[in-house]
Amino acid sequence: MKRVLPVLLALFIASIAFSASSASAQAPSGSAAAPVPAAAAAPTADPTSGSNAATAGSAATGSAATGSAAMVNDTAATGSAATGSAATGSAATGSAATGSATTGSAAAPAAAAAAKGPQAKAWYDVLADKPIEEEGTFWMPKAVNQAADESDMMFYAVLALSIFFFSAITICVVYFTIKYRHRPGHKAEPSASHNDVLEITWTVIPTIICVFLFWYGWHSYIRVVTPPNKAVEIDVLAWRWNWQFTHENGVTDSDLHVPAGVPVRLVMTSKDVLHSFYAPAMRVKQDLVPRRYTYAWFLATKPGTYRLTCAEYCGTSHAQMACLDVDPVTGHCNRRAVVVVHKDLEEYERYLNDKVADQMNMSPIDLGKMLYDKKGCSSCHTVDGSARVGPSWKQPDWGKEIQIVGGTVKMDENYVRESILYPAKKARPGFPNSMPPFEGQLKEKELLGLIAYIKSLKQ
Amino acid sequence: MATTDEFPESLKSLPQGPVNEPDFLQVAKGWRSWAFTLDHKRIGMMYLFGILFSLLLGGSFALLLRTELWAPGKTIVGADTYNQFFTLHGAVMVFLVIIPGIPAALGNIIMPIQLGAPDVAFPRLNLASFYLWCSGALLLVLTIPFGGLDTGWTLYTPYSLETHSAVMIATFGVFLLGFSSIFTGLNFLVTIHKFRPQGMGWFQMPLNIWALYGTAVMQVLATPVLGITVLLLTVERLGHIGIFDPAMGGDPVLFQHFFWFYSHPAVYIMIIPGMGVISELISTYARKPIFGYRFVAYSSLSLALLSFLVWGHHMFVSGQSRLANMVFSALTFTVGIPSAIKVFNWIATLYKGDIRLKTGMLYALSFLLLFTIGGLTGLFLGILSVDVHLHDTYFVVAHFHYVMMGSTLVAFLGALHHWWPKFTGRMYNESLARTCAIGVFIGFNTTFMPQFVMGARGMPRRYWDYDPQYQVFHQISTIGAFILGISLFITVCYLMSSFWTGKKAPRNPWGGSSLEWQAPTPPTLYNFEKPPVLHEIYNYDDLVEVAEDRWERLSDAPEYQGAVPVASGDREHH
User: Fold this and answer.
1) What is the distance between the terminal CA atoms of chain B, rounded to a whole angstrom?
2) Is the CB of B355 less than 8 angstroms away from the CB of A165?
């Protein structure tokens, strides 16, 4: 036993060292997260930021204060809420000032690009198309949620604990197996077949460890799931197979755009089956249950583009929830919906305003094309004539009678409109009748846009 | 302490097979003698072959899944087929292989012999459970031609209410399988209570029997909930009455509560029998009494009881209340304590032993390491805040494969190799078996170790298409899966070929101390020709290796007098 103790001690130190070294890349973000998110924002290179950073920057600083006041949504009427929100609000303003000076804004060039032609992407979609931030340790992507620092610490602590116990057990097993292996002349030696002190020791030690793990897990969990009283609220609606994020001014999008440095609260529900909102870099996961609201929140500390996946199995395209670009050959999804963290509240606000304006000014066909991506139509329908889960939107039979279940119907504006609003009524044979109805969820203009886009594909 | 060089020569000439009557394989011929048999050993063997076949089926699905995941995008199949593959892989492995694996197949064969009993308490019920298992298995397989099954083995609502795949066939199959499991449990409970020989108190039972007892309690208490749940699901699909369907005021999360109320204990229905056989193997091959017998026995029972209280840890992100999450997290950690006790006791059993690295022992040592990994990674998932990140990712996939496959299936393989000579009467190719055991260990770790990293990096489960950053991990995993698959396939092959090519097995090839090693090899119809002699459990002092892989008790030497025969009493013979 005396010989064992130093070995165990050395092992314990070694496993802590290992896990600490694998977590070391994590450390800067942990410390930086607390004071000012902008510190992390500063060094990031933004391809959309141009030479006009200075001009856009000055505008940004001015509107940041008003922006935060307008957008931070007061969810609780209590006076004590004000202190918490003031802190986060000022953090946002700070990040606006420093962040915009370095990274600038893409608003001006993007607006110009949008004016040029329908094919050019809006600046916010350019941000969403950027490669995903892959920075992190061997184990995990870097956490960009301020509330997740404690839970990450727990992960690495348990990793150290596990490595320690696993190594200790493996060493014991291997050592005993070699030392007491059967060989000529070797016999089993008598030894006690039970020892109460030993049994109590290895009952009590795991018990103590478990109590600690539970307590800190619970403590950090409460942090992860309890949003501050004031937060930007975004409604989330999921269906097979799309995310729809509805912002305060009514803007909807399948990419989640959020500001850095401000708490964001998601109010989520599903239209059909279970889904699960999972943003690994935010360490946030929450199931979406139909006809029930569930909640999640985070405080993003670093601008960038982050992964967003569905973690609860939801049928055929579960693996490609809200996929905007499917490779026609391999079927691999090249561009999923993402979480875009804007560098500050002001840029987020500009996203909201520009998105509304862009939608107002789009031609019907462009609007239809945009909705095709952003309403998740692309999860099931192609525009090149090939079948996916549902029939392709490229219909050479426009204006002719087509087969439906139990009869025929003329393929025209009326049929398309009815099929969007009440898809189950006149389903096409050979396709599962699983499309969610869009009744009450599309504006008249949007319906016209979708019809115009489908008509434009017929050649 | 006896060694190989000090025993009476007469021991070498003791009979090994049955003397006055044919063994149970010879006693009757023809398919009827199998189809209508009431012999627990024959029923167990039929289970065993059914389970080995299911293992190959479930394993084939696994290899197809892993092949598809070789590259992002479509490799061999598309989304819908992939979804059916993982559903059937899970359903077949859980319901057809792992749950009945040790209790219904090996337990059926070995448990009555370990008790010195002629059969289980209700032989007809035993046969009925087997046919229920067959019917359930057939229905699960029938889902393939009838539209497939794409709900995942968990059958979560509301998806399982809406999908057009063969959910009803599957739920009916699961319903039957549930009853098969309940009947087996009931049978074992009565057998263990009533058929113990005189002199074998609860604490003289082999730990394998303790584990089977704990398992049987859970089978009887938990499985009815599964039956009710799938019945409700069926009714809901047929009649749209709004139990689980939110569109009709039902609650889909309620289904998860019902489902996991069974399926969490089911995890222990899988692992506890594994722990039982590991206790047997480690003690036998280390030639040492099991360390802390009572602690190991009680930890089996406490695991069985605690397993009913922790189902909510599958639902930490389902929308369950925070209070429930807190309570379930706390209770989940209590499960870690008996598990840790068992591992420490097994290791202490090795101390000062005489360890023989037979195939059974290689599997037992693999179990120790794999179960430790499975248990320790369970800590991550019990911690609420960490679980939020890891839930429904490959980390969970890796964790439960370490427990369900790395532990239970490895224990099953160890048990199979340990008792194979006893009930088939044949020895298998030992060196090939050891190679395969090492292949299983290496293949298993290569498959599932990378999945921990993938999961922590955020790869969700049940994805047929994934981000290219995970590809290297998926490829390592796929290579491992093929090493594992090939090792298992060879294992099945050499075991089968041992029927024709294997040399005849002695009564006691490994020097086991429990009663089954006193029975002839293979056993007779009622297991023993003469009442077995009850010795102190896990005491190996009396056993000597008279030839390679052949052990005898010194007290069995004709020169030796004084053994007290077990009173067979008025035990009923069938």
Assistant:
1) 40
2) no
Return the residue in B325, B388, B399, B472 with the most chain A beta carbons within 10 A, the one to mutate for interface testing.
B388
Determine the residue type at B268: Y
CA angle B391, B98, B346 (to 5 degrees): 85
Contact assignment for B460 to A203 by CB distance below 8 Å: no
C-beta of residue A273 within 8 angstroms of C-beta of residue B159 = yes
Strands A338-342 and A256-259: parallel
Write the single-letter amino acid at B4.
Answer: T
| B31–A contact, CB cutoff 8 A | no
Give the pLDDT of residue A22.
Answer: 58
Q: Check B465 against A319: CB less than 8 A apart.
A: yes
Confidence of residue A19 (pLDDT cuts 50, 70, 90): low
Are the CB atoms for B472 and B512 separated by under 8 Å? no
Interface of A with B in 115-134 (CB under 8 A): 132, 134
Of B199, B354, B358, nearest to B289 (Cα)?
B354
Contact indicator for A133, A84 with CB cutoff of 8 Å: no
Q: Averaged over B354-367, what is the pLDDT?
A: 95
Q: How far is CA A45 from CA A103, A127, A303, B17, in A?
A: 7, 12, 10, 80
B221, B293 Cβ separation under 8 angstroms: no
Q: What is the b/e burial string over B6-19, where b = at least 16 CB atoms within 10 angstroms of the residue's CB?
A: ebeeebeebebbbe
Count the neighbouring beta carbons within 10 Å of the beta carbon of residue A340: 26
pLDDT(A81) > 70: no
CA distances from A69 to A8, A283, A352, B299 (A): 56, 27, 15, 59
Cβ neighbours around B433 below 10 Å, total: 24
Q: How far is CA B394 from the centre of its chain?
A: 23
From residue B476, how far is each of B91, B444, B447 by CA, in Å? 25, 11, 7
Q: pLDDT confidence of B562, banded at 50, 70, 90?
A: low
Average of per-residue pLDDT across B94-98: 94
Q: Do A140 and B295 touch (CB under 8 A)?
A: no
Q: What angle do CA B516, B520, B522 make, to 5 degrees?
A: 90
In whole angstroms, what is the distance from residue B397 CA to residue A182 CA? 38
Distance of alpha carbon A427 from alpha carbon B430, whole angstroms:
62
Q: Which helix (H) or strand (E) covers residue B386, if one does?
A: helix B384-390
Contact (Cβ atoms closer than 8 angstroms) between residue B408 and residue B267: no
pLDDT at A71 over 70: no
Distance, in Å, from the CA atom of B486 to the CA atom of B66, rounded to the nearest integer, reads 14
Q: How many residues does chain B have?
A: 574
Q: How much is the average pLDDT of A230-247?
A: 93
For A280-317, give the DSSP string.
GGGTEEEEE-BTS-EEEEEEB-S-EEEE-EE-S--STT
Cα–Cα distance between B12 and B8 in angstroms, integer? 8
Closest CA to B460 of A298, A284, A310, A73: A310
Q: Within an 8 Å CB–CB cutoff, is residue A274 touching chain B?
A: yes
pLDDT at A12: 66
Of A37-46, A403-412, B301-310, highest mean pLDDT: B301-310
Whose tokens are 């925070």? That residue is B322
Q: A191 vs A115, which has greater pLDDT?
A: A191
Output the CA–CA distances (angstroms, integers) from residue B335 to A211, B322, B388, in the order listed: 12, 20, 20
Q: Residue A181, Cβ neighbours under 10 Å: how many?
A: 13
Gap between the terminal Cα atoms of chain A:
83
Q: How many residues does chain A have?
A: 459
